[in-house]
Amino acid sequence: MSGKLKGPYRPTIHRFLLGEAEVTTILDGTHTREPINPPFALEKSETEIASIAAANKLPSHGFENSYTPTVITVGGQVVLFDTGFGEMGRDGHAGNLRRRLAEAGYAPEDIDVVAFTHCHPDHIAGVMEGDAPAYPNARYTIGRREYDAWKDGSEIPGQRAQNREMFLKLLPPLAERMTFLEDGDGVVSGLTAEAAFGHSLGHMMYRLESAGKSLLVWGDVTNHYVFSLQYPESLVGFDDDKDMSIASRERVLDMVAKDGLLVSGHHMPFPSIGYVERHGASYRWTPATYQLRM
Ligand SMILES: [Zn+2]
């Protein structure tokens, strides 16, 4: 009998060349969450959400939240964007980044820069492994506004109280090796930080430019490829400043659609690389396929 079911299998590492740079996306893990509202479509009824889900061939009772950090090698530097859940995710669902980096050919010591988009747990928790930095040779970059807001705490929403405790434990001890970024600041040659505040108070994106090719690592500008892109004005529970987040989302979606810019999105479906198309006041995620190999 060879017809025994082997169970689901999914790819977790994806790599391609872009100009003279190399881009790897790695699945840290996933959580299945119920319901959809919250966190998404806070202003929409259950019926409206069910109809949007059905139109997009998605279940209406919940969604899969996936976490995909990006690694870019450019100018001889290896830059890791966000660190996943680390040890706190190792309940069988997440925290796989370091193991999968090794599978992808990177030792922890190979990471030269850890570039944070923002300080929510799925982005910073994996920065430490036990009592030691998970990427021992890395320096760090973070938006100055982001770091200051979490350090000060007075503007952090109440629902992020535990998240702030995590920030205080993890990041201030690393401050000596940290570069604090403003909009437009360089990270390494070919990589520039761009402000997109709102999802968190000082959320940053990073733009790669190499030999005429570009990629925007947009972090959490959008958190779901349907609910955030088709309804960019929709209220999202994950957003710390909802009005500012909507403004940033609309601005960035308009920009990447207009410019045909390639995107890497932490919560876009793995391999989390794609384009955005405009349809009226709405947008669609178009996953990248073979165009990046030709
Ligand atoms: Zn996130």
Kindly summarize this structure in a few lines.
This protein has 294 residues and is of the alpha+beta class.
Range of strand content: 25-35%
Small molecules held by this entry: zinc ion
| Helix percentage | 10-25%
Structural class: alpha+beta
Order of strands side by side in the largest beta sheet?
1-2-5-6-7-10-11
Number of helices: 6
Strand count, sense and barrel status of the largest sheet are: 7 strands, mixed
Mean pLDDT: 97
Order of helices and strands: EEEHEEEHEHEEEHHEEEEEHEEE
In whole angstroms, the N-to-C terminal distance is 42 Å
Tally the beta strands. Answer: 18
Shape: globular
Can you tell me about this structure?
With 294 residues, the protein is α+β, with helices and mostly antiparallel strands. The chain is 20% helix and 30% strand. It contains six helices and 18 strands. It has helices at residues 46-55, 97-103, 121-124, 144-152, 161-170, 242-259; strands at 13-18, 21-26, 29-33, 63-67, 70-74, 77-81, 113-115, 128-129, 132-133, 139-143, 178-181, 186-188, 191-195, 204-210, 213-219, 262-265, 273-279, 282-287. The strands form four sheets. A seven-stranded mixed beta sheet has the order 1-2-5-6-7-10-11. A seven-stranded mixed beta sheet has the order 12-13-14-15-16-17-18. The chain starts with 12 loop residues before the first strand and ends in a 7-residue tail after the last strand. The model has no long low-confidence stretch (mean pLDDT 97). The structure holds zinc ion. Zinc ion is lined by residues 120, 122-123, 220, 266-267.
